[in-house]
């Protein structure tokens, strides 16, 4: 990451953090926008760090494959925990969240099946 991009990232991070602290001090609720801002900031920053690491194309492909699979299972875990916490707190299961969890559990095996079918034919 070059110096200019780093300065822009740090400035945005400090502005976002300052705004969040201001909202906490004034008693305002921290909402979806604040979480989305920091998520997007990290989403844009982290790939710039990983592209600096020298690797062969095969290593890049394997790394992307492994990290994608790990991310998939972590998202499933987070969805499961969200459904579990919702059930514990309210006594009801959020139907939409449970549906997304079920869809997520089927996605990887279905895509793997379709890809195998594509390569066999």
What is the CA–CA distance across the termini?
43 Å
Structural class category: mainly alpha
Spans of at least 5 consecutive residues whose pLDDT stays below 50 are none
Q: How many independent structural domains?
A: 2
Shape: flat
Strand content range: under 5%
| Number of beta strands | 0
Keywords: Membrane, Transmembrane, Transmembrane helix
Transmembrane segments: 7-25, 31-49, 70-89, 95-115
Task: Walk me through this protein's architecture.
This protein has 121 residues and is an all-alpha fold. The chain folds into two domains: 1-53; 55-121, no CATH class. Helix content is 85%, strand content 0%. It contains four helices and no strands. Helix 1 (3-26) runs antiparallel to helix 2 (32-50) and helix 3 (57-90) packs antiparallel against helix 4 (95-120). The mean pLDDT is 87.
Short recap of the structure:
With 121 residues, the chain is mostly helical. It is 85% helix and 0% strand.
What are the main properties of this structure?
121 residues; single chain; mainly alpha; 4 helices; 2 domains
Helix and strand topology:
Elements: H1 3-26, H2 32-50, H3 57-90, H4 95-120
Keywords: Membrane, Transmembrane, Transmembrane helix
Transmembrane segments: 7-25, 31-49, 70-89, 95-115
